[in-house]
Amino acid sequence: MSEPSVTQVAQAIDHTLLKPEATHADVEALVAEAVELGTYSVCVSPSMLPVAVPEGSDLKVAVVCGFPSGKHTSAVKAAEAAESVARGADEIDMVIDIGAAKEGRFDAVEADVAAVRAAAPSPTVLKVIIESAALSDDEIVGVCRAAAAAGADFVKTSTGFHPSGGASEHAVRLMAQTVPDLQVKASGGVRTLDQARAMMAAGATRLGVSGSRALLGSADGATSGGSGY
C-alpha cells in the first residue's frame, strides 16, 4: 500500500492547542491555520468553546475531557463532556483514570468511559486517551477492551503531557490489533511527516498534532517544533 500523501496526512490531523495560557485569539488563529492546512479538526480545551468555524467549512471541533490527569470523577467527566457538546463540540477526547488501569481495575475504566458515552451519545465521537507510554502491553490491551465495551469510537495513545512520553508505533499497532472495530489516534510527539506516516502505517487513522504546519512541511523527516499533543 502506498504511503499517504501530505494532503491525506493533513486530513487525519486534529490540529491541537491545549496550552494552559492559550487565548481566544490563539484559538481563532488555530482555526484559520487548520482551514488553510486542510486538517480534519481543531482540538481545544473546554473553556475555549464555542469555537467559530468559517461558514462552508467542514472542520470539526474536538474538546478534551478529564484532561490531562484523568483523575476527575466519572460524574465530573460526564458533566464536562455534556457541557462541551452543548457548546458545539463534535468530538470528545477523554482521559481514563491511569491508576485504575495500573491496578488492573478495567471494570472501573469501562464504567468511567460509559459515563462519558452516556453524557455524549453518538453522533458525538468519543476518543479514549489511555496514556499508553505509562502502561504495560497487558494494561494497554485491558483498557482498549474496556473502551470498546463502553461504546467508544477511538482509543488514543496519549495526552502529550505525561512524563512517560507519547505515541509509539508499537502501542498504536497493539491498540489497533486489540480493538479492530475501533479507530486509533496517535498523539504525543508526532512531529514529522515520516513519524505521521509511520503511525498511520501502524494503524492510526487520526493524529493529534500541535505543530501541524511544521509537520506537513517536514518531508525530510527532520525534527520540527510543536509538542504533538
TrEMBL record:
Biochemical pathway: Carbohydrate degradation; 2-deoxy-D-ribose 1-phosphate degradation; D-glyceraldehyde 3-phosphate and acetaldehyde from 2-deoxy-alpha-D-ribose 1-phosphate: step 2/2
Cellular compartment(s): Cytoplasm
Keyword field: Cytoplasm, Lyase, Schiff base
The keyword ATP-binding belongs to this UniProt entry's keyword annotation: no
Top-level taxon of origin: Bacteria
Similarity section: Belongs to the DeoC/FbaB aldolase family. DeoC type 1 subfamily.
NCBIfam families: deoC (TIGR00126)
Name of the featured protein: Deoxyribose-phosphate aldolase
